[in-house]
Design brief:
The structure is a single chain. The protein is an alpha/beta fold. It has two domains: 308 residues, L-arginine/glycine Amidinotransferase, Chain A, CATH 3.75.10; 77 residues, Pentein (Orthogonal Bundle). 33% of the residues lie in helices and 21% in strands. α3 packs across α6 and α3 packs across α9. The radius of gyration is 21 Å and the shape is globular. The two termini are 32 Å apart. Bound molecules: arginine. The site of arginine (ARG) has 15 residues, from α8. One of its GO terms (molecular function) is arginine deiminase activity. Pfam families: ADI (PF02274). This is Arginine deiminase. Pathway: Amino-acid degradation; L-arginine degradation via ADI pathway; carbamoyl phosphate from L-arginine: step 1/2.
Length: 414
């Protein structure tokens, strides 16, 4: 099935109970992906670091790899929603259009006149053209011709960005996260990704499918990224705190989840503040209801600060060993760590290539990059079924199957 056919089939509203996500591994019903598009063509050796890519991907191949990823999910009965389709649909609402235009036009960069010209241009184009501009960005050379002189236009290089592209939209995990039947619009730490949440925000606000969806983490002030949020079990969240999510982000997310009754325990987990471990899900993902795959180098030194509700406030304990705190909060004897037993160099290489970043389709069934041969073999030895996808190009953005997916509906665990 092509992406084109799939999009025309995605219904605006689905009958039945409201979608919800209470775990990392409950059978996956619906997932949000973003098929990478022209925004990846904006990457050059001069801007790729700033745009958080480690190279310049071959875009056609990245799209093929992504289509194959989506197809693997569909073959397992998962409904795949594509972000661009949802965005176009949402932008049919005038309020969404205003919000979208507002998010794209940066007066500090453009100056008042050019900003006005861009605003009126973007307000006049079709929803699809506006969606493209919002995702792909615009260079100065692509701005509409305008009357009168513009110093800003004259002095910028034609290839400078008037509206920044969003190549990291690919990683839908980070810009929104479902907890129970609510969705939280996150607050992304890096300037290159900041505007992504304007798009997820307007999708959930104006796409008819989400008309009844409530919000979590309404404040979305301090940085919290979805890659740091793990739903270990119903009512139990782990939040990585490191390069992206800050202590303030973890605290306010925890407070709001506890106050809303979406969680009874939130484990704040410090992780090393560096690119290789930018999110908790780069070192640890769940592969079964009581099992995780974890980067061996962090296994014995992951700690957690358990946060629980206490009257109107919270109590904070710890630090305590993560695995023990998690098992206790989850009400199980032990949270198993799949013993990858890898030598440190192989482990480091496969961690970098997102070997620990798996997406569970059901308990004991995960999608993983094929290149992480050793980690995948150990998962299979431990009884986890691995659906392999290729990610030679997708991986240049440093994200694996979990990063590239935002579950919207999972069945309850029995
Ligand atoms: N959940 C994740 N691990 N996401 C990976 C995001 C990768 C992206 N290039 C970034 O640097 O932000």
């Amino acid at each position: 099935m092509t992406a084109e056919i799939a999009q025309t089939q995605a219904p605006d509203a689905v009958p039945g109970p409201a979608p919800r996500v209470d775990s990392e591994v409950g059978p996956l019903r619906t997932v949000l992906l973003h098929r990478p598009g022209a925004e990846l063509k904006r990457l050059t050796p001069r801007n790729n670091d700033q745009l958080l890519f480690d190279g310049v991907p071959w875009v056609d191949r990245a799209q093929e790899e992504h289509d194959a990823f989506a197809e693997v999910l569909r073959s397992r009965g998962v409904e795949v929603l594509l972000l661009a389709d949802l965005l176009v649909k949402a932008l049919h609402d005038d309020r969404a259009r205003i919000a979208g235009v507002h998010s794209a036009v940066n007066e500090r960069r453009l100056g008042i006149d050019l900003a006005d010209a861009l605003r009126s241009h973007l307000s006049s184009v079709s929803p699809r053209q506006l969606a493209t501009a919002l995702m792909t960005g615009m260079t100065f050379e692509e701005l509409p011709a305008a009357e009168g002189a513009s110093l800003v236009r004259r002095m910028h290089h034609p290839h400078d960005f008037a509206v920044d592209p969003l190549p990291n939209l690919l990683f839908t995990r980070d810009s929104s996260v479902w907890v129970g039947d609510r969705v939280a619009i996150t607050s992304l730490a890096m300037p290159a990704r900041d505007r992504e949440t304007a798009l997820t925000d307007l999708i959930y606000a104006y796409h008819p499918r989400f008309a009844k969806t409530g919000r979590a983490y309404g404040a979305h002030s301090a940085p919290v990224e979805g890659g740091d949020v793990l739903l270990l079990a119903p009512g139990v969240l782990a939040i990585g705190v490191g390069e992206r999510t800050t202590p303030a982000g973890a605290e306010s997310f925890a407070r709001s989840a506890l106050a809303d009754g979406l969680a009874h325990t939130v484990l704040a987990v410090p992780i090393t503040q560096e690119r290789a471990t930018m999110h908790l899900d780069t070192v640890c993902t769940m592969v079964d209801r009581d099992a995780v795959v974890m980067y061996p180098a962090v296994r014995d030194n992951l700690f957690a600060y358990p946060v629980r509700a206490d009257g109107d406030g919270v109590v904070v304990e710890g630090p305590v060993p993560f695995l023990e705190a998690a098992a206790e909060a989850m009400g199980i004897d032990r949270l198993r760590v799949i013993d990858t037993g890898l030598d440190p160099v192989t482990a480091e290489r496969e961690q970098w290539d997102d070997g620990n970043n798996t997406l569970a389709v059901a308990p004991g069934l995960v999608v993983a990059y094929e290149r992480n041969v050793e980690t995948n073999a150990r998962l299979e030895e431990a009884g986890v079924e691995v659906l392999r996808i290729s990610g030679s190009e997708l991986g240049s953005g440093r994200g694996g199957p979990r990063c590239m997916s935002c579950p919207i509906d999972r069945m309850a665990l029995k």
